[in-house]
Amino acid sequence: PQHRQKFKEVSLSRRTVARRVEAISVDMTSQLKVLVSSFQLFSLALDESTDIDDTAQLLIFVRGISENFKITEELLSMESMKDRTTGEDIFQCVKNALCTMELPWQKMISVTTDGCPSLTGKNVGLLKRLSDRVSEVHCTRELIFLHCIIHQEALCKKVLDIKHVVDPVVKIVNLIRARGLNHRQFITFLEDCGSDHSDVPYHTAVRWLSVGRVLRRVWDLKTEILQFLEMKGKDKDFPQLKQSEWLSDLAFAVDLFEHMNELNTKLQGKGTFAHEMYSTVKAFRVKLKLFSRQLTQNITTHFATLATTAQPIMSTEKYTNMIFALDNEFGRRFADFQKLAAEFDILSSPFITDVEKAPDAVQLELIDLQCDSTLKGKFKSESIDKFYALLNPTKFANLRQMAMKLLTLFGS
């Protein structure tokens, strides 16, 4: 309170605020320049989308690593693209951003994108131009291209044959939410019923977790929704709510999407390493195989909602087929990460990896590492980046270089 007058005297005119924002921007840029000057290697993540004014905004993120394994992950630049968004246009934006921050091309190790054609085109796409540029300045290095692992996981859902489940659910939700009167009456109806839920959420395609949440909420409120539709005289439009086979399919979709949403949530978060994200995906594929085997035997241990269906399961064959197709889609879409799987294993488990299967450059260093009991103890107590920072730069030069490359990768 004693400093209240000082705050009242602070100028808040538009020009003053704008000038201060610009000063903050210049200062942050100068700080980032200092950080990137210490990078031994760096990776980029690119995301291009359109704002409400139909202007394409290209977000360029950078993750770099210094000699002592200090990892910096920051927004490098946001480039507004008011005309075309071809591979050449995006390349020029990336080139300008790197030039502004004085980042050398020869230190670029990988690029992660959302997989749109203008970025991934083989002949004129951004990645081809970046690859050619890196080859010019560093002929021995091949640029690593990765497709955002979270985006890939979301796309894998499209292989599931559940359109007959999702479409009626979305129509039911739209019937309730699209009209204000119906929405208000439904909320009041739930209150009168003493329901644990107060509403049903919308399904939005761009929100990857929404479909699972909508399915779960409709399943939980299926009795109340049917009563409400009967009250409105709309129950004949949705006969599926009275069909035991459709309800079983809905229950299966609820359980499967909850498993996938759990995976999606685990993959999110800043600073997550690519090898950790890929390990999470591999674990999910093993779970899918377990689900398939158990459902073949009518075991619904991990499908709690499906187990509560009133009617016995009509046939589990279609459910196992969907899980099998989903597993195959995961294997197909994550081929770019699969190429790095052997190096990921060395990075995360250097003391138990098979030396003979490791790249020639690190075989001897791995033997020295595995025979050092002191380093083995430190590996258990330190984080993975701090552990590799402890290694002698002369004795373990190739191992440190490989660790720098893999820790710098953007998984998403």
UniProtKB/TrEMBL annotation:
Entry protein name: DUF4371 domain-containing protein
Organism whose genome encodes this protein: Ciona savignyi
SUPFAM superfamilies reported for this sequence: Ribonuclease H-like (SSF53098)
